[in-house]
Specification:
Blueprint (H helix, E strand, L loop, with lengths): L1 E7 L4 E5 L4 E6 L1 H7 L11 E5 L7 E5 L5 E5 L7 E6 L3 E7 L7 H13 L4 E6 L7 H17 L3 E3 L8 H8 L3 E5 L6 H8 L24 E5 L5 E4 L9 E2 L10 H7 L16 H7 L5 H11 L7 E2 L3
Bound molecules: guanosine-5'-triphosphate (GTP), magnesium ion and zinc ion (ZN).
């Protein structure tokens, strides 16, 4: 029996079979072993074969080849990685300017990882209802303009007031989208808006700012009423980047990569070289300083705190 993985709690996966029914499956030992450095060989979005074991729980047999997937490091220092989801049309990063503040390095690391795995990325700035000062609105407008200039679609919205949610709904329509972002940015709140009968658990208001709290602890796929699906995931604390080769990092910053063809040396790292077109563009304000800082932070990441792009 073939089916789609719609939920992964770590020990169990829920698979929706072709007849629409859902079954809880165990993972086969061999699949776990094959994963070695991977904590979850089967991910939400995977198409799998389910083997009926008679009286016992069914097991996940083979995984169909993936169109794509996106990964993250299991924890900051760990060499292990986790496949967040597979067979995606896009990855939506939910970010907030306030409560909590999503750092630009976090955003850029996410975007670079999505580029590396060839998953189109979208940015959704949520909680804009909390922006009261003029400065914060200006900052939001700058962020939006900056990422749109690079080519990323940007939505500014509030899951609380509903402002801007139609734009997000349009971006999600008919597609398989992953929703990612720090804990507390409102991923589950957005899911509940987009999927009225989802009733996904949302963080307690009184505990929202309590560090380390994660309301969502497993990944789950929910169907959108008009077609397509959205995947809720647990919040990410730090987005550990994969171990890009130094020369490769620029490939995942589209605006830096574009300009780098004008650098004098073709092995330019855009850090100190004479005739570097990227440094000139940063100087001239054509490349955003925060983007360049994020580029440098990945370039200079401690090699002991990175892992190789696993596959
Ligand atoms: N003011 C305001 N609060 C919001 C908005 N969206 C979500 N919240 C609140 O932010 C808190 C966290 O929301 P969740 O939807 O649980 O966040 P999450 O990203 O799913 O968090 P994790 O599951 O821990 O990763 C809750 O108290 C929500 O009510 C918004 O647009 N504006
Ligand atoms: Mg959540
Ligand atoms: Zn250069």
């Amino acid at each position: 029996m073939k089916g789609l993985v719609i939920k992964n709690t770590g020990s169990w996966v829920t698979v929706r079979l072709e007849d629409g029914s859902a079954v809880n499956c165990k993972m086969r030992g061999v699949l776990r072993l094959k994963g070695m450095r991977c904590t979850n060989p089967v991910a939400v979005g995977d198409l799998v074969q389910v083997e009926d074991k008679g009286g016992e729980s069914p097991v996940v047999g083979a995984i169909e080849p993936r169109k794509n997937y996106i990964i993250r490091r299991s924890s900051n220092l760990s060499k292990e990685f986790q496949i967040i989801a597979a067979n995606l049309d896009q990855a939506v990063l939910v970010a907030t300017i306030l409560h909590p503040e999503t750092s630009t390095t976090f955003i850029d690391r996410f975007l670079a990882t999505a580029e590396a795995y060839q998953v189109p990325a979208v940015l959704a700035f949520n909680k804009i209802d909390l922006l009261i000062t003029e400065e914060s609105h200006e900052y939001l407008a700058e962020m939006k303009a900056m990422y749109e200039r690079i080519g990323y679609p940007v939505v500014t919205m509030s899951a609380t007031t509903g402002e801007g949610t139609d734009s997000l709904r349009e971006l999600l329509a008919g597609k398989m989208s992953l929703l990612s972002g720090n804990s507390g940015v409102g991923k589950s709140s957005i899911i509940n808006l987009m999927v009225p009968d989802a009733h996904v658990r949302v963080g307690d208001v009184s505990q929202t700012h309590h560090k380390g709290m994660h309301t969502t602890t497993f990944s789950e796929l929910l169907d959108l009423p008009g077609g397509g699906a959205i995947i809720d995931t647990p919040g990410v604390k730090a987005f550990g980047t994969i171990d890009f080769e130094r020369a490769e990092v620029a490939h995942y910053f589209p605006e830096i990569f574009k300009i780098s063809s004008d650098c004098r040396f073709n092995n330019c790292t855009h850090t100190h070289e004479p005739g570097c077109a990227v440094l000139a563009a940063v100087e001239a304000g054509e490349i955003s300083p925060t983007r360049f800082t994020s580029y440098l932070s990945i370039l200079d990441e401690d090699p002991n705190n990175k892992y190789r792009k696993p596959f």
